[in-house]
Amino acid sequence: MSTISPVISQRSRLRGAIYGLLVGDALGVPYEFSSAEDLPKQNLIEMEPPPAFDRAHAGVPPGTWSDDGAQALHLLSVLLQGDVDIEGRLAQGLQSWLARGELTPDGRVFDIGIQTQEALSRLARGVPANQSGLCEERSNGNGSLMRVLPAALVPAEGDHVLLDRARRQSLPTHGHTRSLLACSLSTLISARLLNGTGFIEALDQAQECLETMTIREERDELRVLLDGRLDPPSGSGYVVDCLWSSVAAVLRTRNFEDCVRTAIGFGNDTDTTACVAGGWAGLLYGEEAIPLRWREQLRGKQLVEPLLQRLTDCWV
Ligand SMILES: [Mg+2]
């Protein structure tokens, strides 16, 4: 029996994407660093964890997004002003986030990845932003994947523009080809979800597109990325695992709430897995599908609304 799903407007998908990412991030914050076995039961995953649970980031009020959300909002702001200007607006945005907590609910940075910290100190020392990201194989954390979603949300003329944005936004913190390809695949998926394509089809199309458009020198790295799908999802900070854990969270569930709870249920880098999966689930199911209690508990909405207004205006 087939069910008729409600028509989801593009506006609802765009708003759902950003709020889905922020809600996923904020929901995952208290559970970060816990292994899957140590987490509360899935139906107890809320912005405020059960009292007996030893939460991460004590002192951060429930409903607060972290570095993931803040950097994604910075990228959105950059794209709303034009291209991914990495040496100018993106570099400045990342630095003012680190220095003053810009685009965070309390003006306070309480979470930062090791590679991002190192790359931003290189940037501060004068290394150009297109070289400040670390390029070693071990430097493939999920710190640029977690912020890439807006690359797919601002109108673009074709997949090559999406790929260019995805790669360039990664460079200031994560310069290795594997990270660039993970951001690329994620962006191609997101752009198709925005058009109303279902998730399985979006993933297939994105993968096929990336295989066609990847240059010979990067094909071995593409294989590493795509083969990551065969490993069990563990929600770690490794970019390949983060991508496929997020894919698994979407594929194993049918609504926003179950999706982000499943993402958190993998344990470890819970806020980032739920942020990537939550962005996709928001695109897929729309803003109204994000539980109202979580939308209401999310802090800092006054920082988000002006950006969302400009984003939806771009598409009119
Ligand atoms: Mg975080």
TrEMBL record:
**Co-factor binding comment:** Binds 2 magnesium ions per subunit.
Which organism does this sequence originate in? Piscinibacter terrae
> Which SUPFAM superfamilies has this protein been placed in?
ADP-ribosylglycohydrolase (SSF101478)
Cofactors needed by this protein, per the record, are: Mg(2+)
Q: Which family does it belong to?
A: Belongs to the ADP-ribosylglycohydrolase family.
Q: Where does Mg(2+) bind?
A: S66, D67, D68, D269, D271, T272
Q: State one molecular function term (GO).
A: hydrolase activity
Q: Supply the name of the protein.
A: ADP-ribosylglycohydrolase family protein
Q: What is an example of a Pfam family matching this protein?
A: ADP_ribosyl_GH
* InterPro entries, A to Z: ADP-ribosylglycohydrolase, Ribosyl_crysJ1, Ribosyl_crysJ1_sf
Q: Which domain of life is it from?
A: Bacteria
Alphabetical keyword list? Hydrolase, Magnesium, Metal-binding
